[in-house]
Amino acid sequence: GDMLTLRHYVAVERVQKAVVWALRGTLSISGALIDLQAFEREYCGGRAHQGISEMADAVWNESGAFVTELMKQEEFAGYDLVITGHSLGGGTATLLHVKIHVENLLPDHRVLCYGFAPPPTFWWDSDCKNAPTIETAMNNCVGYIHDNDCVPHLSIASVRRFSTLLDTVDNYNENVWFFKRAQIFWEWAPIPQDLIASLVTTHERLQNTKTVDCELVIPARVVVWLKKSPSNGKFEALPCSPHSMAKQNIFICQDMALDHLPEQYEDAFDAVLEGDGKKENIASVKSKDV
User: Fold this and answer.
1) Distance of CA 242 to the CA centre of its chain
2) pLDDT at 31 > cutoff 50
3) Across residues 187-201, what is the average pLDDT?
């Protein structure tokens, strides 16, 4: 990897008969700049996050030939290609996965994807010519969200919705005494009911208003939300529809950044597996509305 190509590596998992292509998340200024390129462009017959889709193309251009030749070796006959990544790496992995399916780049192998903390990156019309292969890619991909991680909710549409809600709060605050605002902030005073009513009205209006041409989603069969119970601290793996997840607003809380860290995901998976004992349940769940 370099300033223009996300760092990645390829490993062989012989027990599960899989070649694993792992992509690193945002750990540099260049990676952050990719995250901030929140425009859309045409991609694989649909629309995609510009910066992340360009990174998916760059990763394939850098190592696609190597992976293709590796998979052609006789000892890897019958092996799956598993693409995975976290954060920017997770978003890039999902789009790279779509690209390989749509362009039929590895026709002799099953290609799977597991994205951890991926942002919404892709949208397509069910009537587009690539819809069947896009659906196949979706069915072979699973996304994961840890508790209050904000990144999987960060799309162009959700940021615009969030900005509109902030404007509602700002407009209300113009007529609120400074010390009153401080009391509300520090929870010394309750949130005014008329402010809550104004936010509810704005939210309902946003739900009925088309703010962007397409609502980017995580291109996966299901998004597994690893939610921690506030009552007992135990984790539960909740299967969610990617399209329903895309309609969620950005949740602001103290843990929204901390819950994005890779080690937090690792701890959550350990907790779920200890409670369930069935590893396959986390990878094979079916989606439902959140």
Assistant:
1) 9
2) no
3) 91
pTM listed for this prediction: 0.83
Residue with tokens 């615009």: 160
pLDDT level of residue 286 (50, 70, 90 thresholds): low
Question: HEC profile for 214-233?
Answer: CCCECCCCEEEEEEECCCCC
Quick check: 259 pLDDT over 90? Answer: yes
